[in-house]
TrEMBL record:
Residues 5-73 form the RL domain. Its cofactor is Mn(2+); Mg(2+). Residues 127-284 form the Poly(A) RNA polymerase mitochondrial-like central palm domain. This is Poly(A) RNA polymerase, mitochondrial. Residues 380-422 form the PAP-associated domain. Pfam families: MTPAP-like_central, PAP_assoc, RL. InterPro entries: MTPAP-like_central, NT_sf, PAP_assoc, RL.
Length: 512
């Protein structure tokens, strides 16, 4: 049985509600620390991490245990400054015991690229390399738990104003494609507040809340986010560098959560983004090759500057993911279904229309038929690079809803149709030079991988997936020179064959 997206979300949110974030001394006796916490109830799980000091995430079995711990937690006293008396589940534990050890902390970052290439070079085949890369880069269980806890802490602030509102994670943190260190995307959902849309009528009278009126939904979002942003800045423990970016296409509050080391974006009314996250979660969990290929392609693109953490004219990770999904839909035996096929499997209760956009698809993973395709990851990686190395970007656009190339509806270097808001191009920011860099790199990398399959790699040297992550150095230069020699040899061989054939017919043909 595969676990559905909504079930995962419910479990994670419950774990977060039962958890506290604790700032610890640099050295701490772990056993005694847990014994102290056990006074308030059974500890379900815990882990330490290092981010601007040693911290621990502690989950209790019962919610009452959290309340018990907070009830004996003191408000700090400081003679020089006034302490804002906002209580949260981010607390500090002190100890006077000496001679303790540093606790084991889980890593928050993945291996540096050079170390990653060195490790990949020890694998036996490209498929093992792709799995190794996935294991190194993907979000760990600890990172996922920490992200949900930060979301829960922000929810505590937001619900001070809107008690029935909810804060959801979306994007890389929940769609199974998250990389260690990726930003935390959050959105404040106000539309599901009980009784917000309609109230029950009793007799001749109907009661309704008296509420402020504003000119548009966007204006309401801006006002709400402005207030919540101010609260995060003024009262949110550990929240720094708060920026209210309210005039963006999607208004947001951006801030840094210092204890976790996470950069956070909080938006409002962003249900389509959450729906898209669920769609990607479904695709990623249908077949083990999907995530491995996406991570390999993203890592390759980042190594060569095809993608960037800085906004601009680069291809984004989301666009790359759409390209991988489209490619997998185009296999002779498709590895994943199209969005329209997922829609056809949806039940009546799964019909979903958001702002006039059809966002319907089946949510039960167990209703989706498994593919008969058995292609290995080495073949898929090479053919992905070949596929886009010769793709007709000038004429065609990419559409995972239909799984078919079709003419671009408007002029753009790269056109990838938004799966839900179908009039939008998710890659509108990409310009022609950046797209051409991607195409050239795809062609070169495909040749390198094919060449190594023919020659077989030298053990201990960067090869396979590791070789196409190289951005410079003698190994890459040698491969490029070998490519030129092979191409020249093939051209000469083709010309000799042509002359031989023409000689046999008594004719001479010169090709230009």
């Amino acid at each position: 049985m595969k676990t559905n997206f909504s079930d995962v979300q419910n479990v994670r949110h419950e774990q977060a509600k039962h958890s506290v974030l604790i700032s610890c001394p640099p050295k701490i006796h772990e056993t005694k620390f847990l014994q102290y916490l056990a006074q308030h109830g059974e500890v379900a799980s815990h882990f330490f991490f290092d981010s601007n000091g040693t911290h621990a995430v502690v989950e209790f079995v019962d919610l009452q245990s959290v309340e018990s711990l907070l009830s004996v937690t003191k408000i700090p006293s400081d003679e020089d400054v006034y302490v804002v008396p906002y209580k949260s589940r981010y607390i500090r534990v002190k100890t006077t015991n000496a001679g303790q050890q540093f606790p084991k902390c889980w890593p928050q970052t993945s291996l540096p690229m050079n170390n990653l290439i060195e490790k990949l070079s020890t694998a036996e085949n490209i498929e093992d390399q792709a799995q190794m890369l996935l294991d190194e880069l993907q979000l760990t269980e600890e990172s996922i738990r920490l992200r949900y806890l930060v979301s829960s802490l922000i929810s505590d602030i937001a619900t001070a104003y809107f008690p029935e509102a909810t804060v959801h994670l979306y994007g890389s943190s929940v769609n199974s494609f998250g990389k260690m260190g990726c930003d935390l995307d959050l959105f404040l959902n106000l539309e599901d507040i009980k009784g917000y849309k309609s109230g029950k009528s009793t007799g001749a009278y109907t009661a309704e809340f008296w509420m402020r009126r504003v000119s548009s939904g966007r204006t309401a979002q801006q006002k709400i986010l402005s207030v919540i942003g101010e609260c995060i800045d003024s009262f949110g423990p550990g929240c720094n560098e708060v920026h209210k970016i309210l005039n963006a296409r999607c208004p947001l509050v951006r801030f840094s959560h210092q204890p976790s080391g996470l950069q956070c974006d909080l938006t409002a009314d962003n249900k389509i983004a959450l729906r898209c996250s669920e769609l990607l979660y479904i695709y990623s969990n249908l077949d083990h090759r999907v995530r491995a290929l996406v991570f390999a392609v993203r890592c390759w693109a980042r190594a060569h500057g095809i993608t960037s953490s800085i906004p601009g004219q680069w291809i984004t990770n989301f666009s790359l993911t759409m390209m991988v999904l489209f490619f997998l839909q185009k296999r002779n035996s498709p590895i994943i279904p199209t969005l329209d096929q997922l829609k056809s499997l949806a039940g009546k209760k799964e019909k979903c229309i958001i702002d006039g956009n059809d966002c319907t698809f089946v949510g039960d993973l167990n209703k989706i038929k498994q593919t008969a395709n058995t292609e290995t990851l080495d073949i898929l990686l090479i053919e992905f690079l070949e596929f886009y190395g010769k793709f007709d970007f000038k004429t065609n656009c990419i559409d995972i809803r239909k799984g078919l190339e079709k003419n671009k509806p408007e002029v753009a270097a790269l056109y990838i149709q938004n799966p839900f808001e179908q009039t939008l191009n998710v890659s509108k920011n990409v310009n022609q030079p950046q797209l051409q860099r991607f195409v050239n790199l795809a062609q070169e990398s495909a040749f390198i991988l094919q060449d190594q399959v023919r020659e077989s790699a030298k053990i201990g040297k960067p090869w396979g997936l590791a070789s196409i992550l190289l951005t410079n150095g003698s190994d890459r230069e040698t491969t490029t020179k070998r490519k030129k020699k092979i191409l020249a040899s093939e051209r000469i061989g083709g010309l000799l064959d042509s002359l031989k054939d023409n000689g046999n017919t008594g004719k001479r043909k010169v090709e230009h």
